[in-house]
Amino acid sequence: MTINEQQDEIIEEFELYGDWMDKYEAIIQLGKELPLIDDQYKTDDNLIKGCQSRVWLHSEYKDGKVFFTADSDAIITKGLISMVIKVLSEHTPKEIADSDLYFVNAIGLNSHLSPTRSNGLLSMLKQMKAYAVAYQVKELNTQNNG
Amino acid sequence: MTINEQQDEIIEEFELYGDWMDKYEAIIQLGKELPLIDDQYKTDDNLIKGCQSRVWLHSEYKDGKVFFTADSDAIITKGLISMVIKVLSEHTPKEIADSDLYFVNAIGLNSHLSPTRSNGLLSMLKQMKAYAVAYQVKELNTQNNG
Amino acid sequence: MSAELNIEEIRKDFPILDAKVYGKRLVYLDNGATSQKPVQVLETLDNYYKEYNSNVHRGVHLLSQVATEAYEAARKKVASFINAKHDHEVIFTRGTTESINLVASSFGKLALKKGDEVLISAMEHHSNIVPWQMICEDKEAVLKVIPMNTNGELLMDEFASLLTDKVKIVSVTYISNSLGTINPVKEIINQAHAKNIPVLLDVAQAIQHVPIDVQELDVDFIAFSGHKIYGPTGIGVLYGKEEWLNKMPPYQGGGDMIKTVTFAKTIYNDLPYKFEAGTPDVAGAIGLSAAIDYVNNLGLENIQQAEHELLKYAMKKLSEVDGLRFIGNAKEHASLVSFLVRDIHPFDTGDILDKQGIAVRTGHHCTQPVMDFFGIPGTVRASFAFYNTKEEVDLLAAGIEKAVMMLS
Amino acid sequence: MSAELNIEEIRKDFPILDAKVYGKRLVYLDNGATSQKPVQVLETLDNYYKEYNSNVHRGVHLLSQVATEAYEAARKKVASFINAKHDHEVIFTRGTTESINLVASSFGKLALKKGDEVLISAMEHHSNIVPWQMICEDKEAVLKVIPMNTNGELLMDEFASLLTDKVKIVSVTYISNSLGTINPVKEIINQAHAKNIPVLLDVAQAIQHVPIDVQELDVDFIAFSGHKIYGPTGIGVLYGKEEWLNKMPPYQGGGDMIKTVTFAKTIYNDLPYKFEAGTPDVAGAIGLSAAIDYVNNLGLENIQQAEHELLKYAMKKLSEVDGLRFIGNAKEHASLVSFLVRDIHPFDTGDILDKQGIAVRTGHHCTQPVMDFFGIPGTVRASFAFYNTKEEVDLLAAGIEKAVMMLS
Ligand SMILES: Cc1ncc(COP(=O)(O)O)c(C=O)c1O
Ligand SMILES: Cc1ncc(COP(=O)(O)O)c(C=O)c1O
């Protein structure tokens, strides 16, 4: 699935939910399902600033694709992370760097997210793209030197 | 004339004036008539704080009575000073210290005086009473020692 | 509902209490962060701007005179509200934070030398920590901390032994904004004064809840914010004893705080102007005065009683919630509750409460060291004002139950 | 009346202009001290308090979210009004005075050492003198002054020679509040930058009259007050280039300006929060934003034109008054006139004008050194806003004639 196909799937899924409670329950459920980050990666280096809750984000680069894992001490945050990871993980650095994440708006979440929460989400997205760009640069350097 | 008789005279006089212009013209006229302070007394020591205009106040103690002279660089201030001097000058220290100056309110001036102006007036009254008290103390000391 | 206050009627003074969030009626329980404003305050602001807005002091014209009188009457109102000996002991600032910064900086310059100590407590708001850290760093002085127990009560024995000759000032909060603790400030002041050490009280969370008499307390400085006592944002108060304020160097320089200026030498003005550089927040001061009128009108004792009843009720209702534990169990407790439920993150609880229209605060409440002490990421805090009702407490309790259901 | 602005209609936005003083309609010509507020600003304040008043930042609930967004939108509005490169280069303060104090203190700590110099001008407001005197005294630095001629124009040759390597910052006013001089700020900045010296512009009297583009000017800091640009009292702005603000130490400590606090070590927050300790004046910032909307709506160019016409007219009318002399005859001149008549004390003139309902300012206008330079006790100052009319200028001229008649 491409990044956009994944987003569209989430949007479709959320269309089924009537009110905020259903949506939140779905998010919380996703939070519970999030494959946890390996404890060794729960370091201060992997901590993302700008959240009332703490978020750790770890990335790995394998076979031309970026793999993200993450965790948070707050479950709703975890649910949000989980969606973002679903959308962005296992794509090429270029796909990630170029991606336009429209699903957050589309599922009507942003109007429900506290600014602290959306700032957190934003920080995380920024961080993920930064990783992607870093891998892109690395790739280029490898190619140039190779 | 006692202090209060002098005040009542001013009040009576001001009852003749209809509007603020008449009152102000009378005050300005008084300002022009104020016997000027001797230039040697226009010192920083005799300067009174709290005025947008400058006021010099000099006092002398003679034959049991206090004599005030004063000057200001603003004519309306001078007029106000002139009234206060008329009321308080040439009285005993005790009379001055105990005096209650009701004429300022009675002639309806206070509602016309800018706060800067009334602060100035207040500072001047304070200063005059301070002089009177000082002479009282001096008197007492002289009596005690004498 | 209090015996004395007709809350239903009173609520009509606060238009925002009718607001809807997510289609539900707002339940505003974030009064510790900022209070709502009665129409009496809003009308005062509006009148000021529509009828006599003008720059104060030194103005020759009538508008300026009227504005100056109103501004100085506001100072007088504050002075008599806290029973200050002199009006000029009341300095208008932007808020508690600026008031404390003023003292830290000016008192610090006056009195702090290398090796001296400043004594604060373990439950201070960042605004009563960081200004002292900054001046201590500047003066190579040392910041010491009165510890607390796990109920959130100061250890007064420790306080006594920390109170050495090195201490130049004690600065503590009257009421903790994250724990609700009411500190034994009278005793703190007495002990400090026995050693000639002045005391600053951060009354940001007290001024709207308990009567404060600075002369009876004999406190040297108090600091509070207008916005927490039903007044406008942007205005606050520093009270300082005349002796101290006269000795301290000015804080900011500029218009109004000087007597004469030449490029060579500047003579500072008398109190209170010496500490009020620049055009003050005239509307803010007048608005604060209207807020104090409002409080006086209800009666601080009546307010206290109504809030105490709310607190008791909330404690009872919330302790019935399975797995809920209070953070801060001091015997002397103000009308706010800080809590956590099971192992649910406070941010999650607060979020679900918000979606139900219930406004609480979550996080460290600008008291990170308190959270570190308890080893928690933060708390959920519901803070009550007299205009809150038992029905709202019921909604809070039900809202928490719902959050627990969804989150665990 | 301006070709572009319908002043008669515009005046309806300002309820206070219909006020009566001593039974006469107010003629408000003290706009340099503070400006009046349009209903658009007052309604914004009222709405804020009635609909979404809440403490900003870190709030989990909707009200706090809406208030935070409005507060940050106000910052963005200011940033785009002055064309700042980044929103976070805009710091909300209480006013010009506090903005300058912030820079004097924080920049002073960063950059001033013994023997260094700070360069201001002979026509500065006390608020741009005293803060520098205070930090210079602290750092044993020297305050130097760019002189002016008897027209009230800076001597640019002298400026060039004062601009030595010892100078660490130049701080001058864009427009003089007592003389009306518009200074050649672009040239001042260029010359200072050629020597890598940063420049602060006090734009308290400029922001409401002339378009200001901080990037085009390449100015390092600007300071202004909301209350002089039709906004509420108690709010002001410091703009600073990101590089400088990042380098400078924080000014006040407290809530919001920190990232993490322990008693041992505090990490400061990023811009702009690093410089905004404590609960900000949320309503003030939002009100200022509404004032900027109002100005943008009229168009600053239109305002400039209307005020220029008023100035020209006032100059002509007043110069017809026998014995009147202007203090400040700079070629580049803003819409205010400072004057004296014969040997009449300005306080007397102002007093008689006041009794006729005409509000002017008298005295030293917080620029005592300017009065010392001219050897006068003060001036009478009439300062115009776009809502003033030629009829009001006529009333002023007639009022002065009457004052002269009574006083001489
Ligand atoms: C040129 C100038 N600078 C600074 C100030 C001080 O502004 P504020 O009193 O609003 O801080 C003023 C206004 O009085 C001014 O005209
Ligand atoms: C105990 C305490 N001190 C200080 C403050 C800071 O007040 P402000 O942000 O209004 O300056 C607060 C409020 O947040 C507080 O609760």
Q: What would you say this structure looks like, in words?
A:
- The complex is a heterotetramer, with two copies of chain A (146 residues) and two copies of chain C (408 residues).
- Chain A has 146 residues and is an alpha+beta fold.
- Helices cover 56% and strands 12% of the residues of chain A.
- Chain A has one domain: Sufe protein. Chain: A (Alpha-Beta Complex), CATH 3.90.1010.
- Chain A is built from six helices and three strands.
- A three-stranded antiparallel β-sheet of chain A has the order 1-2-3.
- In chain A, a hairpin with a 6-residue loop joins strand 1 (47-48) and strand 2 (55-62).
- The mean pLDDT of chain C is 96.
- Helix content of chain C is 40%, strand content 16%.
- With 408 residues, chain C is α/β, with parallel strands linked by helices.
- Chain C has two domains: 7-30 and 299-407, Aspartate Aminotransferase, domain 1 (Alpha-Beta Complex); 42-296, Type I PLP-dependent aspartate aminotransferase-like (Major domain) (Aspartate Aminotransferase, domain 2, 3-Layer(aba) Sandwich).
- The chains are: A alpha+beta (146), C alpha/beta (408).
- Chains in contact: A-C, A-D, B-C, B-D, C-D.
- The interface between C and D is large, with 91 and 91 residues.
- Bound molecules: pyridoxal-5'-phosphate (2 copies).
- Chains C, D: It holds the Pfam family Aminotran_5.
- Chains C, D: Its cofactor is pyridoxal 5'-phosphate.
- Chains C, D: Keywords: Pyridoxal phosphate, Transferase.
Rg of chain C (C-alpha, Å)? 22 Å
- How much helical structure, as a percent, in the residues of chain A? 55-70%
Helix content of chain C: 40-55%
Bound molecules: pyridoxal-5'-phosphate
Overall tally of structural domains of chain C: 2
| CATH fold node name of the largest domain in chain C | Aspartate Aminotransferase, domain 2
Helices and strands of chain A, in order, run as HHEEEHHHH
Strand tally of chain C, please? 17
EC number (chains C, D): 2.8.1.7
Keywords (chains C, D): Pyridoxal phosphate, Transferase
Protein name (chains C, D): Cysteine desulfurase
Pfam families (chains C, D): Aminotran_5
